Amino acid sequence: MKTIFSGIKPTGDLHLGNYFGALSQWVDLQHDHHSIFCVVDYHAITVPQDKKALHNNIIAIARSYLAAGIDPKKSIIFRQSDIKEHTELAWILNCTSARMSDLENMTQYKDAASKQINPSVGLFDYPILMAADILLYNTDTVPVGHDQLQHVELARDLAKRFNHDYGETFKIPSALIRSEGSRIMGLDDPTKKMSKSIGENNCISLNDSPEVATKKIMRAATDSDTVIKYDPANKPGISNLLTILSILENKKIKDLEKEFTDCGYGQFKQRIANSVSKFLTNFQEKAKHYSDEQVLTILADGQKQVEPLAATVLAKVRTQLGL
Ligand code: TYM
Q1: Which family is this sequence assigned to (predicted)?
Q2: Which residues of 252-275 are buried (b: 16+ CB within 10 A; e: fewer)?
């Protein structure tokens, strides 16, 4: 069975982009893969975090995995900082295979660093920690949204370089990006990807009430035209809304275009608001089933399951290096 590994940073509520780009894929893949899902808390601290909020966010993200349908009987859910091998391997990769020029080329770093006055070294080094996360578990496939593709490609490059320089050690992973929904755009600015850090009206949080989500959708930026057509270059707002509806209702975009031929934008948005509200109510209902204690028990159980896997790969790496 092939292994999949992926993770989400506990830096606030998840949004529809995280769900479509990552979580929903994981839920489907877990049935026929050895599945490992991580709450990547060491990635969260690359920018300043409030101690209490971080603790609560770690539990909240793990709870979202469960509410989305990750089944702890089929998949492993664990917290990155519980497994010391992640940071150990990141250090080793820093010294052996990673180059300054690799990291200087990372578009996410350039974007995140431009928002900080004096960014941490961790923010710069973040893709190496992500490579360590992936390589520690002999991962075949990394299901992520489009914005993480460059990081997964770096993990591949580092694995190849290490294997070349020190002997066959790592499995070479590949990214898995879904054809639709890998890049959900912001509602208020559909030329940029949906993101927690942009602002209130940019994203639909998985914890938004149906009323709040409806307001955001009704206000979503569109265009001065009246046609409901998928055309990301000229109609980014309508195209993004079509993508969201097509995933939620499991319908083809072409069929939705036909269905909405004679409808105005208001009616179209109302339908999306109804579908999103239904989805959110269902998700939030499921999330209520897991107490903090239950979530922490699942994370502790996950820790026990991944500990020997990570230790085995790190031991091999150390041997290859003569440590
Ligand atoms: P993060 O926490 O920023 O995002 C989590 C996942 O959500 C996807 N995503 C989106 N997908 C579609 N449309 C969007 N607008 C959108 N915004 C976010 C991301 O692509 C991601 O899959 N570095 C990673 C976390 C990480 C990781 C890993 C992932 C750390 N180690 C190892 C995979 C494997 C990150 O910051 O994702």
Answers
A1: Belongs to the class-I aminoacyl-tRNA synthetase family.
A2: ebeebbeebeeeebeebbebbbeb
> Model confidence over 194-236: pLDDT tens digits?
998 788 889 999 999 999 999 999 999 999 999 999 999 999 9
Q: For the chain, what is the domain count? A: 2
Examine the domain organization and report whether 122 and 235 are in the same domain.
Answer: no
Mutate to test the pocket of ligand 1, among 8, 86, 150 (most ligand atoms within 8 A of CB): 8
Residue 183 beta carbon below 6 angstroms from any ligand 1 atom = yes
Beta bridge partners of 6: 37
pLDDT digits (tens, 9 = 90+) for 118-161: 899 999 999 999 999 999 999 999 999 999 999 999 999 999 99
Summarize pLDDT for 282-303 with one digit per residue, the tens. 999 999 999 999 999 999 999 9
Residue 110 scores a pLDDT above 90: no
147 and 253 belong to one structural domain = no
Nearest CA to ligand 1 atom 20: 145
pTM for this one?
A: 0.96
CA dist 110 to 64, 93, 114, 196, 255, Å?
Answer: 29, 21, 6, 17, 39
Residue 86 is part of which domain span? 3-182+291-321
